[in-house]
Amino acid sequence: MKPAAFEYAAPKSVAEALALKTRYGEDAKYLAGGQSLIPAMNFRVMQPTALIDLNGLSELAFINGDGDELRIGALTRYSAVEHSPLVAERLPLAVEVVKHIAHPQIRNRGTLGGSLAHADPAAEMPVLLTTLSGRVRAESARGSRWIAAADFMLGPFTTILEPDEMLVEIALPTLPPGVGAAFQEVSRRHGDYALLGAAATLSLGTDGTIAAARLVFLNAGDTPKVAGLATTQLIGQTPSAELFATAAQAVDGDIEPMGTLHASPDYQHHLARVLARRVLARAAERAQAQPVA
Question: Which of 31, 165, 175, 234, CA to CA, is 20 to 30 A from 60?
Answer without folding.
Answer: 175
